[in-house]
Write a structure and sequence with these properties.
Elements lengths: L9 E5 L2 H8 L10 E5 L4 H12 L8 E10 L9 E9 L2 E4 L3 H11 L5 E8 L7 H7 L5 E3 L2 H11 L4 E9 L10 H12 L3 H11 L5
Helix pairs in contact: 2-5, 3-7
Length: about 210
């Protein structure tokens, strides 16, 4: 009688306490295998340290890695609460292609009907991007920016080959910058969206990674 396959783990990485809280409040049912939600701390260096440390644990051997949290949208017409599914992450150290982008889009549309989902390159920064920097980054082809996704995925694939992805919720956009008081409402909207994404993440995990034996 053959041994039952052991489901591979899933590591979901976010930076901020408010992002971690939203994910903890989400529906954890339906996960196919062990799930770790890691708060890395803010910035690329913190993300790299945390992800490298956690993935050195044999318990997470072969884990798929998904970076998530909030981001700044770069394209005109983006709104707080919109979703960004990265086709790749990029920063000065390199680019990491994401796996299962179309599946994530499909599942997010199903899980969050009515929410706009954008796809394209997600770029990394070591600081909060505002003003003219948005236009400069948009000119590179990126559609959104955050401080941790690129470092998270680069650290993950350097540890060993594995499926990786990044899904971010827009909290800050060209017409809705965080410096404006009106974006408080946008932040609440983004929090509610992030709280609802886990079923789509679990479906992605179930489909992109074969069980270990």
């Amino acid at each position: 009688m053959s041994a039952r396959p052991v489901p591979a783990p899933l590591l979901i990485a976010c930076a901020l306490g408010i992002e971690h809280l939203a994910l903890r409040m989400g529906d954890r049912g339906g996960a196919d295998g062990p799930v770790t939600v890691l708060r890395t701390g803010m910035g690329p260096r913190a993300a790299e340290r945390s992800v490298t440390r956690v993935l050195s644990d044999p318990v997470l051997d072969g884990a798929a890695v998904l970076a998530t949290g909030f981001c700044a949208g770069l394209a005109p017409g983006m709104h707080p609460g919109d979703l960004v599914v990265a086709e790749e992450t990029r920063d000065p150290r390199g680019r990491v292609p994401c796996v299962g982008t179309e599946l994530l889009v499909k599942e997010l549309v199903r899980t969050l009907p009515g929410r706009t989902v954008h796809t394209g390159p997600l770029t990394g920064s070591d600081h909060v991007v505002r003003g003219h920097e948005r236009a400069d980054l948009l000119a590179t082809g990126a559609i959104a920016v955050d401080m941790e996704s690129a470092a998270t995925l680069l650290s993950a694939v350097r540890a060993e080959p594995r499926p990786v992805a990044a899904v971010r919720v827009v909290v800050d956009a060209p017409e809705h910058e965080l410096v404006r008081i009106g974006t408080v409402r946008g932040g609440i909207s983004a929090f509610r969206v992030l709280r609802s994404v886990l079923p789509a993440f679990f479906e992605w995990h179930r489909n992109v990674l074969l069980p270990r034996r």
